């Protein structure tokens, strides 16, 4: 059992001694519950998720072979990560590393946090989850009602940054007595949960007949555990890994070359190679992009009734590309890691998809004269700006003095990091999260839309239906250049004319 106590980096070389068909030194944890009977608690509902045939989507893509999907969103916490959350807790308890009154801390993109928080709720542990700002509010709200404490970190922080989610979790562990980081990036319980359980379920559900297994890679535990076990059961099975553009998990390294620096799909990809990821088990890597992934997730929902998440779309889209060239007698299995619940305000929302440029905005009646026109320069304004080290009192006084609705926060490189309003300052002071003398860092609204200066007026209008402002940027050879902002008021006054 490996924990942060060994002071190992999350990308350190693996100490795993696995070779195919070797005797395991680990405890084998199989799922033996009988769903026809009353179960002792919700943790006993983890696993035994359904395998479902895809019917319409293969036809849309000209695929003749069978394509099945393993629906991991049927786990009680809503994702494949329930399996590893419970497994890591069980292993830590068995080793005496997790005892009553202890605190579980975990850096995560959200789903592992939900699995751990659910286990902590049932077993009575305190739970602290550290996750990047990029992750959805739905994950945040779910963690909150499960009783977890949540700390957000900057999305742009690298994995080894002092302000990144991994480093922040490690600092907390040193400060809080009787606390432990189960550490999904290092913990052998991560791949073992899939080796013992998920892979065996897939094998039995397919009655031993499958030719390709397609799965996304984040920490790498899912594809490593499933891939190793299936390889033992049938060496002919091909394992295909899905990795988003701007991530570096895929091999050969040339696949990872791209100008893209950010992706919206959550839960897959990293800027380092996690210890638990065994890339030797992957026969073929394929790179995903947001546009294809998110639209495929919506297709899966609309055409197959599968209420899946964004990374499911990434895996299925590339599985279709793979399967299109396969003969009719082949069978492909795709792992769908999580469900729709986590993304109700993201790819499920037409407004979000349009604002992010993944869908074209339909013109409503009466807007034909301006909807498709380019964004007029005259409605782009240069806002009042502040650096994030300004105090709440300074920001409040400036907002009152200038009689403006918001102030945009920029860093020393003139990159927009968010905005603040009178309401956000007042709320922070009244609920005690900040004092007048504190910097505005804690109350900056960091979730905002960035639109290119080439966006249509219709796309801007849709974005601002539910947003106070949109930041306008220009793509240059040196990267993004901040042009200005467009507010609801600017657009309304222009189109009203």
TrEMBL record:
<dbReference type="GO" id="GO:0006535">
    <property type="term" value="P:cysteine biosynthetic process from serine"/>
</dbReference>
<dbReference type="InterPro" id="IPR050214">
    <property type="entry name" value="Cys_Synth/Cystath_Beta-Synth"/>
</dbReference>
<dbReference type="InterPro" id="IPR005857">
    <property type="entry name" value="Cysta_beta_synth"/>
</dbReference>
<dbReference type="InterPro" id="IPR036052">
    <property type="entry name" value="TrpB-like_PALP_sf"/>
</dbReference>
<comment type="pathway">
    <text>Amino-acid biosynthesis; L-cysteine biosynthesis; L-cysteine from L-homocysteine and L-serine: step 1/2.</text>
</comment>
<dbReference type="InterPro" id="IPR000644">
    <property type="entry name" value="CBS_dom"/>
</dbReference>
<dbReference type="InterPro" id="IPR046342">
    <property type="entry name" value="CBS_dom_sf"/>
</dbReference>
<dbReference type="Pfam" id="PF00291">
    <property type="entry name" value="PALP"/>
</dbReference>
<protein>
    <recommendedName>
        <fullName>Cystathionine beta-synthase</fullName>
        <ecNumber>4.2.1.22</ecNumber>
    </recommendedName>
</protein>
<dbReference type="InterPro" id="IPR001926">
    <property type="entry name" value="TrpB-like_PALP"/>
</dbReference>
<keyword id="KW-0028">Amino-acid biosynthesis</keyword>
<dbReference type="GO" id="GO:0005737">
    <property type="term" value="C:cytoplasm"/>
</dbReference>
<comment type="function">
    <text>Hydro-lyase catalyzing the first step of the transsulfuration pathway, where the hydroxyl group of L-serine is displaced by L-homocysteine in a beta-replacement reaction to form L-cystathionine, the precursor of L-cysteine. This catabolic route allows the elimination of L-methionine and the toxic metabolite L-homocysteine. Also involved in the production of hydrogen sulfide, a gasotransmitter with signaling and cytoprotective effects on neurons.</text>
</comment>
<keyword id="KW-0129">CBS domain</keyword>
<dbReference type="GO" id="GO:0004122">
    <property type="term" value="F:cystathionine beta-synthase activity"/>
</dbReference>
<keyword id="KW-0198">Cysteine biosynthesis</keyword>
<comment type="similarity">
    <text>Belongs to the cysteine synthase/cystathionine beta-synthase family.</text>
</comment>
<keyword id="KW-0456">Lyase</keyword>
<dbReference type="GO" id="GO:0019343">
    <property type="term" value="P:cysteine biosynthetic process via cystathionine"/>
</dbReference>
<feature type="domain" description="CBS">
    <location>
        <begin position="379"/>
        <end position="439"/>
    </location>
</feature>
<dbReference type="Pfam" id="PF00571">
    <property type="entry name" value="CBS"/>
</dbReference>
<keyword id="KW-0663">Pyridoxal phosphate</keyword>
<dbReference type="InterPro" id="IPR001216">
    <property type="entry name" value="P-phosphate_BS"/>
</dbReference>
<dbReference type="GO" id="GO:0030170">
    <property type="term" value="F:pyridoxal phosphate binding"/>
</dbReference>
